[in-house]
Automatic annotation (TrEMBL), chain A:
Membrane topology: Multi-pass membrane protein
Keyword terms, alphabetized: Membrane, Transmembrane, Transmembrane helix
GO cellular component labels: membrane
Subcellular location: Membrane
Top-level taxon of the source organism: Bacteria
Protein name in the entry: Thiosulfate dehydrogenase [quinone] large subunit
Membrane-spanning residues: 12-35, 55-83, 90-109, 129-148
InterPro entries: DoxX
From TrEMBL, chain B:
Lineage of producing organism: Bacteria, Pseudomonadati, Bacteroidota, Cytophagia, Cytophagales
Domain of life from the UniProt record: Bacteria
GO MF assignments: nucleotide binding; oxidoreductase activity
UniProt xrefs under Pfam families: GFO_IDH_MocA
Keywords: Oxidoreductase
Keyword Ligase: no
Domain Gfo/Idh/MocA-like oxidoreductase N-terminal, first and last residues per copy: 70-221
Protein name according to UniProt: Putative dehydrogenase
Organism: Algoriphagus aquaeductus
Length: 162, 539
């Protein structure tokens, strides 16, 4: 991604912080699920209030264990990638996908039942905001400034110089 | 090598830090996650070990192999149709309407569940219904060349036809006992809907008949006994998790026409299509009345209102867990407050059943606690779900498909743990959810939310199963493989006597007392109790 106007180091720092916070959130969710053997998304999917047939299909006997494994793997990958600063653009897109799935299973649309939630939401909830924040992470990659990709960037930079 | 040197030359300590700073963050978050799950597992294990409740399902009934059992059905009404489906026989009309319903709503799994139901290896050989339309409807769907099903206009002819090994009785209450007794005495097994009997006298007579014919298996249709959580509940009680239970509250709340027994009156009902005298039997002789025929639950002459129809379910659910037997005293009140439509059974009814000598155990000094009241409370004018709660000195148990136990803030047993903050009385200390893979000792609000949404059913091996199917299967297994049904004559006797005591108390406004040694109702000496119970005046 080419930057037309370079960011100040503070701006980059805040973007890195955003990336780390979201990564932290994803990773912790993934780890908790990974080490809770009885965990399953079945209840969440079966109680979907929107696009029910799709979510019920995901929750069906033949699908649910694959869905659970994929969900955990995706959470761990997105979390680790955002924190480490490696493949962050791919991770951001996967993260947006996951969040949109969570969002559409229980969307806070007017007239739709609100599931267990710690706050009050109308159309917009934290899943959607986190997805939007991930789009920012996608559009403003920072892993060259802070992250494993700095290794590779420096290497190609030094190769070019060489 | 040269490139590497260049690389490292261009790569400062600062770069290294900026490249790898994510690694310790990742490690910290990962470790925190492991720590959290470990702590919650330790807490869960602590509780499971401390409470030591064995989560178990009722034992599976035996194989359905061998010769097909020949079944006769008496009464193909609303319940009769349901029982036939549990047995594996659905009418074409039902199949078509369910297929349509499933097409419109993919969530509707009734047809799918029915088709997936295990084959019980039975033949429906005979049917008796005194309303031509229903009998013909049954024959249209169930009679085939390969499996002939014959209609009988008299239940006695059906029982003595030699064509049936067992009968299922789904008739109005006043026919339950006479039909079951005739079957048992003829060596034919019987599955009988609740309440087991309509009068006190026939309760003793039926018990006598079953005792004299041990080869005939009688099961009473309290399918709640198959609920997966009940054995677990029994174990929780046996381990004295709740302490002394002094009060059990249970209820029926309904608020629609169907719930108030306002069933549809068939347009073809007439003295020509219904054998009216066969319906009346020993009931008061009245001219043909289609409403009486279809809505018989509304009159004491044929039904028994809330006490016989619905209290029996709740009483038996609790009796299944606590085995407290027949109450020493029963007092009831209520009236016809929500459906003043000519019925004479109450539509609002409260029944207090007292067991002064009963105890489930105690955590306090000897002799302090003894005695329990079971309160059944019902209205047909509101359907707020109040659940069934067993209330002990140390904890309360919500008894349903899901079992939830909350410690009591003033418990003796859990006093120290509450003080240490390890127990929050607002959070369950134990929850058994048959649909979850494991037992959840410390549950979340979310789990409760999903459970309350009604997503969870009675399950077997993770599969949703109709409890009526399991109950009928258990009866068939006892016939084939031996053993006693979970709701047999003794449980049925307790259920019926309790219901009749409630009916008597409602009718007389008196406290009704049971003598457990003489096995007699000793209130109202010298009076004809059954005449009081059956009194059919319209108020």
């Amino acid at each position: 991604m080419t930057q037309t106007s370079p960011l100040t180091s503070t701006q980059t720092g805040v973007l890195v912080l955003l990336r780390l916070l979201i990564g932290w959130h994803f990773l912790y969710e993934g780890v908790i699920k990974l080490y809770s053997p009885g965990w399953t998304a079945k209840g969440y999917l079966l109680s979907a209030t929107y696009m029910e047939s799709f979510f019920h299909w995901l929750a069906s006997e033949s699908m649910i264990s694959t869905i659970d494994t994929l969900n955990i793997a995706a959470l761990l990958f997105v979390g680790a990638a955002l924190i480490l600063g490696f493949k962050t653009q791919l991770a951001s897109l996967i993260g947006v996908g996951l969040l949109l799935l969570y969002y559409f299973a229980h969307p806070p649309f007017p007239g739709y039942p609100l599931g267990p939630a710690e706050g009050s939401y109308w159309i917009i909830n934290k899943n959607l905001i986190e997805a939007a924040a991930l789009l920012v992470v996608f559009l403003f990659p920072t892993s060259v400034s802070f992250g494993l990709e700095r290794f590779f960037a420096k290497r190609s930079l030094s190769s070019q110089t060489h | 090598m040269a490139t590497d040197k260049k690389l490292f030359a261009a790569f400062s300590r600062r770069d290294l830090l900026k490249s790898l700073a994510g690694v310790p963050i990742l490690g910290a978050v990962w470790a925190a996650g492991i720590d959290t799950t470990k702590k919650s597992k330790l807490e869960k294990d602590f509780w499971l070990e401390k409470l030591n409740i064995k989560a178990s399902a009722p034992p599976a009934s035996g194989p359905m192999s061998g010769n097909s059992l020949r079944i006769g059905l008496i009464g193909f009404g609303i319940r009769g149709e349901q029982l036939m489906r549990a047995l594996g026989f659905a009418t074409q009309e039902w199949m078509e309407s369910m297929a349509k319903s499933a097409q419109e709503d993919p969530k509707d799994k009734r047809l799918e569940d029915f088709l997936a139901q295990e084959n019980l290896n039975v033949k429906l050989t005979a049917i008796c219904d005194i309303f031509d339309v229903r009998a013909e409807k049954a024959l249209r769907s169930f009679h085939t060349e390969a499996n002939p099903c014959k209609r009988y206009t008299s239940y006695l002819d059906l029982i003595h036809s030699g064509e049936v090994d067992a009968v299922i009785i789904a008739t109005p209450d006043h026919w339950h006992a006479p039909m079951a007794q005739a079957a048992i005495e003829a060596g034919v097994h019987a599955y009988i809907e609740k309440p087991m009997t309509h009068t006190i006298e026939e309760t003793y007579r039926l018990r006598e008949a079953v005792r004299n014919h041990p080869g005939s298996i009688l099961a009473v249709g309290h399918q709640h006994r198959q609920t997966l959580s009940f054995l677990t509940a029994q174990d929780a009680i046996a381990k004295n998790t709740l302490g002394h239970i002094s009060l059990v509250v249970t209820n029926t709340n309904r608020n629609d026409d169907n719930g108030a027994w306002q069933y549809e009156i068939h347009p073809e009902a007439s003295p020509e299509t219904i054998d009216w005298n066969a319906f009346l039997g020993a009931a008061p002789q009245v001219p043909f009345n289609a409403e009486h025929f279809f809505r018989w639950r509304k009159w004491w002459a044929y039904g028994s209102g809330l006490s016989g129809d619905l209290l029996t379910h709740d009483y038996d659910r609790v009796n299944c867990v606590l085995k407290m037997g027949i109450p020493k005293y029963v007092t009831a009140s209520g009236g016809i407050y929500t459906h003043r439509d000519g019925r004479n059974v109450p539509d609002v009814m409260q029944v207090n059943m007292d067991f002064p000598d009963f105890s489930t155990g105690s955590s306090q000094e000897d002799g302090k606690e003894k005695g329990m009241t079971l309160v059944y409370s019902a209205t047909l004018g509101n359907q707020f779900d109040r659940g069934t709660v067993l209330m002990g000195h140390d904890a309360s148990m919500e008894l349903g498909n899901i079992l939830t136990i909350y410690a009591d803030p003033r418990s003796t047993k859990y006093k120290d743990l509450i003080k240490e903050g390890r127990i929050d009385p607002q959070v369950p200390i134990y929850q058994y959810d048959p649909t979850a893979e494991g037992v959840d000792a410390v549950t979340s609000a979310t789990a409760k939310y999903f459970a309350n949404k009604g997503l969870l059913w009675t399950y077997r091996d993770g599969k949703r199963v109709d409890s009526t199917f399991l109950h009928i299967r258990e009866w068939l297994s006892c016939i084939r493989n031996g053993g006693n049904p979970s709701c047999g004559i003794d449980e049925g006797f307790e259920e019926a006597i309790t219901a009749h005591m409630a009916g008597l108390s409602y009718k007389t406004g008196r406290k009704i007392e049971w003598d457990p040694v003489a096995e007699r109702i000793i209130s109202l000496p010298g009076e004809d109790l059954d005449a009081i119970l059956l009194e059919n005046l319209v108020i």
